[in-house]
Known about the structure:
Blueprint: E1 2-7, E2 10-15, H1 23-26, E3 31-34, H2 39-49, E4 56-60, H3 64-72, E5 76-86, E6 92-97, E7 100-102, E8 105-107, H4 114-126, E9 132-146, E10 149-161, E11 176-182, H5 188-192, H6 196-207
Parallel strand pairs: 1-9, 2-4, 3-4, 5-10
Antiparallel strand pairs: 1-2, 5-8, 6-7, 6-11, 9-10
Amino acid sequence: MYIKIFFNDKPLFLCNDVNAELQPYVHHDDAVFIDELNLHTVKSMIHEMQDASVHAGVFFHHDLEELKTMFFKKFTSVKAAGGFVLNANKEVLMMFRRGKWDLPKGKMDKKESFEECAIRETEEETGLKNITLVAPLITTYHTYHEGTRYILKETKWFRMKVNGEQKLIPQAEEQITKLEWVGKNNLKNYMQNSFPSVRDVLEAGFTS
């Protein structure tokens, strides 16, 4: 098993098994591999992932939960939720926000569940109503700086569906300028200009 965390567009895998999927990263010249867990190696991996010459990382430890706990302690945690929304034609709703194709998502309010957050953010950002939450999809992680704080954002994604014709209303205050229904066979151009975590959600949504 592994947890994938994006540092910008670079993946770091926290894992308890170096499987066939991770093997190419372990043996690549521009990737970092660490298999000893302590405070020094955690700090070292975070530092290495911010090096421009490094394009991926693999951090192995036999106890994934222990590795996750120690690694996550180095960040300020932010929790969010979002939606992979399908219409009756099996098209996914994508949005153009700040120069990238994205999916509806946002930070959780206090005392709000991930499910409640996902529905609320999708309604606010798209104007959709009567959204049905079908099932959990995947969880993505990415890091970013906010002033002097180093943030680790955990986003839980949910498969959703809507029926009938609905008016789409981009949320201007979130700098959303376009909303489009996109079929699986037309995703390529959108995915080329989206975040890697969003590409993971799209792939999971159309293959699961």
